[in-house]
Structure formats: C-alpha cells, structure tokens
Amino acid sequence: MMDMKEVKIKQIDGGVNAAAGFKAAGVAAGIKYTGRNDMAMIYSEKDAVVAATFTSNVVKASPVKYDMKIVSDSPYVRAVVVNSGIANAATGKQGMELCENTAKAAAKALNIPENSVLVGSTGVIGEQIPFDRISAGVDALAAKLSDTREAAADAERAIMTTDTVPKEVAVTVEIGGKTVTIGGMSKGSGMIHPNMCTMLAYICTDCNISREMLDLAVKRDIADTFNMITVDGDTSTNDTYIVMANGLADNPKIVSEGDDFDAFYAALHFVDEYLARNMAKDGEGATALFEVKVTGADTKENAKVLARSVVGSSLCKAAIYGHDSNFGRFLCALGYSGVDFDPDKVSLKYESRAGSVCVFKNGLKADYSEDEATAVLSEDEVTVVIDMNAGDAKATAWGCDLSYDYVKINADYRS
Amino acid sequence: MMDMKEVKIKQIDGGVNAAAGFKAAGVAAGIKYTGRNDMAMIYSEKDAVVAATFTSNVVKASPVKYDMKIVSDSPYVRAVVVNSGIANAATGKQGMELCENTAKAAAKALNIPENSVLVGSTGVIGEQIPFDRISAGVDALAAKLSDTREAAADAERAIMTTDTVPKEVAVTVEIGGKTVTIGGMSKGSGMIHPNMCTMLAYICTDCNISREMLDLAVKRDIADTFNMITVDGDTSTNDTYIVMANGLADNPKIVSEGDDFDAFYAALHFVDEYLARNMAKDGEGATALFEVKVTGADTKENAKVLARSVVGSSLCKAAIYGHDSNFGRFLCALGYSGVDFDPDKVSLKYESRAGSVCVFKNGLKADYSEDEATAVLSEDEVTVVIDMNAGDAKATAWGCDLSYDYVKINADYRS
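Above: the input entities. Below: the structure tokens describing the complete assembly.
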C-alpha cells in the first residue's frame, strides 16, 4: 500500500449522490413498514463501470444472485433499486422473478437497458415482496431523482432497518489535475459479521477508472474495512457492496497501478473505513464503538484473526457495555482464535478520549487503577490495543458492545 | 457406535460420589466469595485410572497445564481439589506454584502421593489465588470427605459460579454380571463453547477398565456431547473434563472393545449428555434449552458444523428468547456455517412439549400458523429440527436462548 500521507483527501458535506452525474431518491412504498421511506434509487447519467462483492453465505438472497450475474455480464450499469422491510431471501423462483420485474420496471421508467439495473433488498427472510408496490415505488423514485442533499438523505433513510442513524460520507481527491469525488451510503446494524462487506453499501464516484482497476481497489480495501467489522457474528444472506464509477471527473483514465491509482485507493479507503466504522458503531443496541487494534503479530493474517476474535466475543462485548476492565476475556478470546502464540508475551491497554491505561503486561496483570480503566472504557468509542510482541504485523477490527437493547431488538425483530 | 437399546442404563439418585469408593466434600474457603461453598474435593479410596480432555484455548489456565502433566505422567490418581471464584489463568509462575502447593497440601492431608492429585479452578482470569485459604480449605475438605448425598451436594455447589442450579447425575449399568455405577458433576454457565468439554466436569466410576479403553470412551463421547454445546461462543481457558475409574465394581476388567465396553460407553454417554444438556439449559441468563437437530446431512462432520452454527448464532438465540418464528435466521446461520448445501432442499420444523410445527419446506416458507409456532417456541425446552435432504448423517447440538440477563450477568461479572 502507498504512503497515504502523500494523498490529500478532503471530506466534504455530501452523500451517495455527491459525485458528478449521480442522482438519488427515496420514497415510502409500503413494502412492509408504514409511514417511512423503504425504497431507494441511485442513478448515473452516464454509463458507469462497476465493482462489487457479495455475501459468502451459501443462502444468497435473490437480489444477490441477480446482481452477481449483472455485475459479471454487463459492461456497465446505470441504476440501483433497493428496498428495505423484506430481504427477498429464501423466496425461490418467485423471488428471482421479482428481481427481473423490478429491473424491467426501472429500465422502462429510466429509459435504460434492463441489464444496467442492479437491485437490492434488506429485511425479513422468507417472505415474498408484493410487486405492485415495487412497481409503483420505481415510478415514484424515477420521478424524484435529484442531486440534492435532501435526495441523498431520502435514499439513505430508505435503506435503514434497525439502524438508528443514516450512514453517508463524501470526499474529494485530486487525480491527474482533476477533482474526483466519491460519495457513499450504507446500512448495517444486525446480521453483521466479517466475510464480505456487511449488508448494503453503495459507493458512487465520478472517477475515470477501468473496471479492472476498480475491481482491484475494491478487493484490496474490503479486506481491511468491511470485512473487519462485526456486530453479532451473523453473516447475512443479503450482504452487498457496490461501487460505480462514471468517469465524469474527466481525470486521465486509471488503467494501471501508480500514483493516480494510489490516490483513488486512498480516497476509497477513507470512504469504506468511515462507513464500516459507523456501521459498527450503530450496531443493534450499541452504546459504544468497540475497536480492537492488534499489533506485533507474526503475520497480517494472524493479526486479523486475533482482532476479529476479540471484537466478536460476546463476553468482551458485554464487558465493554459494562465499562468493566475484565481483561481476562480479551486474552481468552485471543486464545481460542485459532492462532498460536505465547500468552506470556501479550500486553493489553485500553484507549479512548479519556486516556490510555495498560492493564496487562507480558502475560501478567499490570499495576493499574480500576477507576482510570473504568473512565477510559466509559467513552462512546473505546479501543483495546493488544501487543502480541511476536512481530511487526498489525490489524484493526471494529464492532460494538452487547447491550440489553441488542437482545430486545432481536427478540421481537419481526413485530 | 453400538445399538444402545440393548444396554439397560438405570438413572439413580446420586451425585459425583455415587460409585463405590468415592467420597466428596465442599467447604466455604473464602477464595473470593463469602458465605458460600467455593472449594470441593473428590477422593477415591483406591487408585483410579484417569482419562481427561482440556480446553483447546491457547491461553491455558495453570490448573489445566498442571493436570495435563499429571494425567500424562501419573499411572493413577486419587483426588481432585477444585476452587471457584478465581480461575488461576494468566497468573504466570506464581499460578503454577499454587497448583503444586495445592497438590502438596492435599497429598499430605490425605496421605497419598503428590502426583495422584488433580487440581481445578474456575472464575475470574488474571488474579492470584491466596494460598493460605487454599491450604486451610484443603484441610477442612479432607476432614469432611463422605459418601453421602449431602457431601455430593456440598461439592457440586462449591464449583458453581454463575450457575443457578448444581448439575449432577448418577447411573448404574450391568457389566459382566456386576453393577457398575457412574456419578458425575459439572458446572457451566458462561464462556461455554464447543472445542472440548466445557468448563468443569468430574465423573467418577467404579468400573474396572483399562486406561486405554477409558481414553477411547472419553474421546468418542466428548465429540458428541460436551463439544456440541455452546452458551456464548467463548471457549474458556479452564475447560476440564476428568473421568476416574477405580475398579471397585469388580467387573471383569474391560481391556478391549466388545459388549462390556459398549455397555460402559452407553452409560458414560448418558451421563455426559445429561450433564452437557443441563449445562446448556442453565447457560447464563437462559430461559430455555435450545436444541438443534440436523438430519439428512451428507456427512456427520457437516451435520455437526451446521447444528453448531445455528445453536451458536446470537440472532437465532434471541429469536428463541422472543418465541419468534423468525426461521430465516436459522437458514442464514446454516448458510454461513462453511458447509456447502442446496438451500432449496432445506426443511425446518420446531418441536417442544407443545407440539411440532413445520415452518419451512424445500426452500420456501411453509403454510403454518404463527400462533401455533409461538406456542411451540414458548416452552423451556425447544428443538429446531433441520432436514438438509442431502444424505443420512445427523447431529444434535445444545445451547440456550440469549436474554437480557445474559448481558446483565456479563456486563458486571466481576462486581
């Protein structure tokens, strides 16, 4: 990876439609919810190359299967139609037909080829989506498409399920003397676990980049961002990450690795990490972002496995919720990760806006103040830094604490 | 495995000291708790062969490391000393010395060889155990050893942490014209996850059996019982399963496979499954036993992986807590288990004392009554039966639901 300090990334006020040529809309289509947005559309005025990753779950929702084919076979895309409320998963032939009919309706409303339309769904598994509502929704969305901030917010709210806040971000970066913009939105909250980007994320950029280079950037970056977050260990049937690039920034086309690719990659990484962190922080019932940084590991892969094991542990998550310096749990979760290491070399500290406290040093409890540890753990963003003292590799994973509300939300999610 | 129907196993009233020649005791030694038993001792009047399995966690508590050496090197054992309150894990050299000194004290008090004493601990990680309390506790235990029901109960309560009920079981089985007895106790509750028996389980039998055959029985049975339960996915640093056989039943010594071995194995399986199920049912905060039966899998190993994935899913566990027929979550958890299968062949039903309801048939939602499903899911023992329709292999896993109380217990476990 390049040295990111050389690339100047500027975060700007904006959402999924921040880049040139992209429009968005959100409407209340009554799929399952009443009185709130539940359908979104993203539209690119110009053909956009696309790169995507999807859930590794064997049980793939219909829109995932549909989009995998479009991404694989279509030279470019123009639009995405997404609904929340029903996941269109475990819905058999009827579920696939719904995807086809949704794409047909959008193609007609927008006057674009059917195979340039992507679809997405999130919500309850096993129920069929009523097509008449999707059909009416598509027409309403097509009529509302806009590049305003309000339109982005409409779309971002429409893809939320148990999310408490919409997730959006936009940045600019200079590439070949031109200003390239990347905007994105995502939704997360539950059924969030590494093994692909998590739930739905849509990134739109006006960067002029070849499909191969866009693919490369996505493959590299997902592994360090969306695949490093977890809320509850449950990898969804619908996970979808899509990035579309329509070239309207008019930068010299990126067709190989080099400074321009590095600049784009750095900006995409900023967007991906921002959305991933915010999805983790807004995990179901979460009161705090739980960040785990593993340093001094023997290999990068082991660093990742260790970080993910700790961030995914129910006992560690509950300790964060309780602001309880129960460091043995972090050690325990390292121990069952599958990675071999010497426990007597491990050191642990907590970090947050309230300070930093070392609680475990070279395999033994450190001399520390419980009050200080509690203060550090009581912030809404808490980092556990684990030094394996076994090498130079490091990795960061993001999750959230485990609260009463997680249970409450999930004990009666459908009602 | 043999046909179990041919073996007559009789459950009897009794606990860990039910078999001939075994005594038990429990005392309040003030290790960490006050006013409750926190030290237990098991004693065999006669040399006992031993078989054991321990945690797979890389971070192994001192008593685990100590016992592994005793089990490996000693020809027989005579006693076990266990404490709750502090786990003696991540305690370095001082922790190992505590184990040695505990064994020395017990050897002296009981007049047995030091290398015939096993030790065990459960509780908070990272703290040192005060040896003066252990030393006083060992003397008090040695003086109280007894074969009464009350003595068993004293010991069983002493090893509990967040357990709400003690777990004990005793059975008899006829082997070679003699009545063989097996008694056992265990504690579980949190940090419970397959990958070895879970937390502490001690089984005492008067069966006359060679060490090799005892080892074989344990290895075979643990895989189908203790390794198939989970409470929270966290494999403890202290997991210990020990079975001791002192031969006092005077049956013809079991030195090879055959009818006698099969009879012993069946009885041991009964004891192990009973204790494992009850540990799952008494998982931290649990309101229900959550049993997952996978049938029709292509291989036994895949059946186990699938069953464990569902029983360990936070979302599935929360659905059981909420009596919510959110069958998509079970399907989702099958899908991310790592096993490949055809989702369109899967069928799902719920079973409990309240009846049986099929909710998902060959990849599609079945026509069922939500009220009936809720009724079936509202019992305190609920089974989800999953037919993969891909072969003849099957497996069962046990866990519990995820409740507010799990979070409450674990957010301030140390206080």
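Note for the figure: Residues 194-198 of chain B have pLDDT under 50 and may be disordered.
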